[in-house]
Design a protein that fits this description.
The chain is mainly alpha-helical. Helix content is 92%, strand content 0%. The chain is built from 2 helices and no strands. It has helices spanning 4-12, 15-79.
Length: 80
């Protein structure tokens, strides 16, 4: 419920000013949600970068294992 002072103030406000006052809480909520979304996007981007690094390391590791396996097989064949 508005006080008498607030009622008087509202009576003298233009229509645009009233709309602006009504939209302020909505705008604040939207800004809050926008900040949350930006933070989540940052987390996702960091996670993607980390996953790319891990994928590269796994790929390098598998290449090294294959090369080591080939070298071991070659050494076994030369000994026989």
């Amino acid at each position: 419920m508005l006080s008498q002072t607030e009622l008087r103030t509202h009576l003298f406000l233009t229509l645009d000013q009233r709309r602006h006052l009504q939209l302020q809480p909505v705008q604040q909520s939207l800004l809050r949600y926008q900040r949350i979304i930006q933070r989540l996007q940052g987390v996702i981007l960091k996670s993607q970068a980390t996953l790319q690094i891990i994928d590269t390391l796994v790929h390098i590791h598998s290449i090294i294992l294959r090369k080591a396996e080939i070298i071991c097989q070659h050494q076994l064949q030369t000994r026989l």
